[in-house]
Amino acid sequence: MKPKLEFVNHILREIKEKDLHRQLRYGHVRESHITIGAKKLINLCSNDYLGLQGSKIEAGQLQSSSRLVSGNDVSFRRLEKKLAAHKSQKASLVFPTGYMANLGVISALVGKKDLILSDELNHASIIDACKMTGAKVQVYKHNDMEDLAKKISTHDRMRKFVITEGIFSMDGDYAKLKQMTEITEKKNAILILDDAHGDFAVGDDGRGTANLFGVDKKIDAYVSSLSKALGSFGGYVAAHDSVIDLCINRSKSFIYTSALPSFLVKMSLDRFEQDRKTRQTALSKNTDLLSSGLKEIGYDIRSPTHIIPIIIGKEKKTLDFGKYLFECGVFAQPIRYPTVPKNSARIRVSVTAWISKKQIEYTLSVFEKAGKKFKIF
């Protein structure tokens, strides 16, 4: 374990000394029973008060309980082992959503006396998590490594955390992870990477943005989503096993919520076995085709990823632009304040491997007409 994370073991020792340490118990829930190992027990811990679903739900029995109570189906263990290996980490922990995963790991690791350095364009879940900690938060200019280096040097006596997205959800650009890891190593800071939009989409076998830039071993904690490129549902954290242990014991968004239904966990496991490499290649080709086409038309496209923002500016104009696209059979949502700064409203295009070349060509023809109609270029 890295020396800078030794405080995690210290916290865990204190939890154990107070007899407050939690451990996950794996089992199968079926109607009124839970089976743990070879033992079948009457389940008096479920929140399925009326028992209306019974055995009629073909998708699978819902857990109806926290994972620390009776909701920890054995399928979680298989999925979490895969996710840990996927991110080259010791362990992982599945949360019901990516939002809850960010809240969980950041609030578990960061204390009131710590310092957080957060990119100004970080997702709302990161912003909310930072506020929850009570720590001192310094927001650095988007992807500005000089500003990060300057602000991280102002509080040398504090434990420091740097938090960034891998691919930014509204601008579609990559975090400057190589420079960032150099700064965090120099300052002995802990680096948390939210890779929701890069995971399973970029890097070797879809291992994400850190893998793409060759710094996957330098990330201290990954937060990601099962709901995007993997096409399932949920979120997860991957890190050293002590960090995961701490999340199990400290993350309110993990402890005080019902478990993800096991059929969704099994769906994620199934998606792992599918031909993701072929789909990743198709995504890359479609992204290049659409991005280059938009540039040829005259749009100022700067995103190198499958998230392509088309900046319109004024909110009303952006709404009208989106309405026109809709009328022409293209669904691309207008994004406005407070999700993005005022007067930087945009059409956010998300490319997928599903769309065909013919569909891309039609989309480009619509955007060309829209650009002329609304005097974008």
Helix content: 25-40%
The helix-and-strand class reads: alpha/beta
Head-to-tail CA distance between termini: 54 Å
H/I helix tally: 13
Number of strands: 13
Radius of gyration: 22 Å
**β-strand amount:** 15-25%
Low-pLDDT runs of 5+ residues are 52-58
Order of helices and strands: HEEEHEHEHEHEHEHEEHHHHEHEEH
Give the CA-based shape.
globular
Q: Biggest sheet: strands side by side, in what order?
A: 4-10-9-8-7-5-6
Question: What is the makeup of the main sheet?
Answer: 7 strands, mixed
- What's the rounded overall pLDDT mean? 91
Can you put this structure into words, describing what you see?
Strand 1 (28-30) and strand 2 (33-36) form a beta hairpin. The chain is α/β, with parallel strands linked by helices and 377 residues long. The chain has 13 helices and 13 strands. The chain has helices at residues 6-17, 75-86, 98-109, 124-133, 145-152, 177-186, 209-212, 241-250, 252-255, 262-272, 276-297, 315-327, 357-373, and strands at residues 28-30, 33-36, 39-42, 91-95, 115-119, 136-140, 160-165, 190-194, 221-225, 235-239, 307-313, 334-335, 345-350.
Q: Care to give the gist of this entry?
A:
The protein is an alpha/beta fold and 377 residues long. The protein contains 13 helices and 13 strands. Helix 2 packs parallel to helix 10.
Give a topology summary.
Elements: H1 6-17, E1 28-30, E2 33-36, E3 39-42, H2 75-86, E4 91-95, H3 98-109, E5 115-119, H4 124-133, E6 136-140, H5 145-152, E7 160-165, H6 177-186, E8 190-194, H7 209-212, E9 221-225, E10 235-239, H8 241-250, H9 252-255, H10 262-272, H11 276-297, E11 307-313, H12 315-327, E12 334-335, E13 345-350, H13 357-373
Parallel strand pairs: 5-6, 5-7, 7-8, 8-9
Antiparallel strand pairs: 1-2, 2-3, 4-10, 9-10, 11-13, 12-13
Helix pairs in contact: 1-8, 2-10, 3-4, 3-8, 11-13
